[in-house]
Design brief:
The structure is a single chain. The protein is 11% helix and 43% strand. The relative contact order is 0.22. Strand 10 and strand 11 form a beta hairpin. The chain is built from seven helices and 21 strands.
């Protein structure tokens, strides 16, 4: 593989954030999704902070189904500051800052913050801002723009939406994990601090094949039905609870990092309206001590998958990898220089990041 890496080493995450024709219901961010039956009844138990943490499960249901993601951040994230002496620049606001409150009032959405600024009548606003490990207090004085509205000259973001793939499901408690890497802000590159999140139904409408220098992608829409909730976004993926009937895979034994080896394996993913299908890949460069998201190399060898997608494309992030009849990990990255090659994460690493309440 080393001779191929000299072409272009850049790898990209496989969560698809830029959706085509996204349909997001008005209440997508409100509360927990509607979960039925035993899982609904067990929500208080699952989220009881005093619940004893169990050992990692020996068997899990295999994913491979796509799912829609709708995340809202804690506070609002600054993704840009106007130059030329804008109030935000004068106040010392910087890209990647997170605005937690304004004049003592917590800020949860971009609309909330915009209204506070517009209604300020030019009076200074005291902002509580998180910057790295620090919490700062910054006063900012809005000014009128050419339309007569008060502004401070800052671009902010409160949410993200995208398509990914479910890696595994624990049928016993409805816990799931997906993506195999965290969701980061497209402008700042920082991990999005999760306030609340919903799992949405999704429909794949188009497949854009990958080519050398251009990552491919799954294009689709988020539906109107919430089928789960996301409670953690971290380096190893997203985790939460999902309605078990929304996944279709069989239950397989879980393999640890020591069982993963170079050689043939299966990658499971969903393309278009078809259900999840299995495709042949080769694993290599196993890095057993790796605790991150690039634990082994994945080479797509299946001619059917290559014909459909060119290899690994955006939206396939989290596609489970099966080897020797056991669930071993998930695909996480694609090499821009060769879409048939990418990286994967050990399932063991994903399970180590499960919230205690979902273990």
């Amino acid at each position: 593989m080393k001779h191929r890496l000299s072409l272009r080493l850049t790898a990209v995450f496989l969560l698809l954030i830029a959706l085509t024709g996204v349909v997001i219901p008005a209440d997508a961010d409100r509360g927990l999704p509607v979960l039925q039956g035993d899982i609904k009844a067990r929500l208080p138990e699952l989220f009881d902070a005093g619940e004893e943490v169990n050992a990692a499960p020996e068997k899990l249901q295999v994913g491979g189904d796509t799912f829609g993601i709708r995340l809202f951040t804690e506070g609002v994230v600054v993704v840009g500051v106007s130059d030329g002496g804008s109030p935000a620049a004068n106040a010392g606001l910087k890209k990647k800052d997170r605005i937690l409150s304004a004049n003592g009032k917590e800020v949860h959405t971009a609309d909330e913050f915009t209204k506070i600024v517009e209604q300020s009548e030019g009076n200074p606003i005291s902002l509580a801002v998180e910057r790295g490990s620090e919490t700062l207090t910054l006063p900012v004085a809005p000014v009128k723009d050419e339309k007569g509205k008060y502004r401070i000259g800052v671009w902010i973001r409160d949410s993200a939406a995208g398509i990914g793939t479910i890696t595994f499901l624990n049928p016993g408690n409805g816990a799931f994990g997906g993506l195999g890497h965290g969701i980061c802000d497209s402008d700042t590159g920082e991990l999005l601090p999760l306030s609340r999140g919903a799992v949405m139904e999704t429909e794949i409408r188009e497949i854009v094949k990958g080519a050398e220098g251009t990552p491919g992608e799954l294009r689709g829409t988020l539906g109107s039905e919430k089928i789960g909730t996301i409670i953690k976004n971290c380096e190893m993926g997203v985790f939460g609870i999902i309605s078990p009937e929304k996944t279709t895979g069989e239950t397989l034994e879980v393999a640890g990092r020591d069982a993963v080896h170079a050689g043939p394996a299966i990658l499971r993913c969903t393309l278009g309206a078809d259900s999840a299908q299995d495709y042949h890949v080769e694993l290599s460069d196993i890095s057993r001590g790796n605790t991150g998201t690039k634990c082994f190399s994945v080479h797509v060898t299946d001619p059917t998958l290559i014909a459909k997608t060119g290899g690994i494309i955006q939206g396939m992030s989290g596609s489970p990898i099966i080897q020797d009849g056991r669930l071993v990990g998930a695909v996480t990255h694609v090499l821009i220089g060769d879409p048939t090659r990418g990286y994967g994460i050990f399932l063991e690493n994903m399970l180590s990041a499960l919230p205690d309440t979902l273990s």
